[in-house]
Write the structure tokens for this entry.
Amino acid sequence: MPLAVIHSDTYTLHAPTFEIAPGGLVTQYFESPQRVDVILEALRATDWAAIRAPDEGKHDSLPLIVHDADYVGFVRDGYREWLAARPALPADRPPTYYPATVPPPRWRRKAAHPKQAIEAYGYYTFDLTSPLIDGTYEAALGSARCAMTAANLVLYGERAAYALCRPPGHHAGRDFSGGYCYFNNTAIAAKILSMRGPVAVLDIDYHHGNGTQDIFYADDRVLTVSIHADPAHDYPYFVGYADELGEGEGEGNNLNVPLPLHTTGEWYLQSIELVLDRIHLFQPWALVVAVGFDTYGGDPISKFSLDTTDYPIIARRIKKLNVPTVIVQEGGYHLESLGRNAAAFLGEFAA
């Protein structure tokens, strides 16, 4: 049975040439367009991937279903405004907008938005991994449209659909970017599906889905579940702990399962069984899987030890929930294995 694969050509528009790593090191930008290239190459070699473009239309208002208007406006206009006001920039690389200051939370709650563009980005981000460049907004919007289209397909009867999103989205919160993410594609898909009834999000990226948690933390219609590296030892460090359970109407609807560094496939599969039991109890009509293949043992920025053979097993266990499923691409940075891992996982949803 064919699996719909939603892919937008806008992924090439966001291609920063460097990132600022911990310790101030300037390194290659790991979240590169080549990630989509290798996944597409692997999927085109199958007989089940039905690759198509997202639904027609510009959809500028789409991010507003999960993000604040001021934040969306900044992602849209911030680079252009910064470029107009920028100081002298190095000539050896394209203009790249990183924040100059980031306020602590107690200041941010009280602060008026900075008037100077050079300072404004710090208000809307929590790290140095998500610069704005020419084309970032268009790429992020195209990525969100992929998630929207996959969700609409499931809403109207498909059993599964895959949104090949780039940039990824699960670190983007209601009003902030971070972790290579600008608009939260997973949250957009879940929000659309929640119009019909309760929805569960299962995040199986190496890193905690802090942005998705932020968006749905007080929402009783969406259960958010994340299996990830223990934030005491890896990104995003300050969120993703087991005692974060939701608040208000969403209390009890957030489940974090932090795992130790170097977790193996066997250990990971035990955690999958645990969270699937919780999802089953929630009785969602649909599921959104935020999939990251940075859990792979060779990933350059992660520290788990899963193998390609683990991914179809994980997929089969998820599929046993027997609910319509949207799969949204998040991380995965080992280019030599990324396409192979994606095809191994997704092929189970085409079976």
Observations:
- The radius of gyration is 19 Å.
- The beta strands are 3-6, 19-20, 26-27, 49-52, 160-163, 199-203, 222-229, 254-259, 286-291, 325-329.
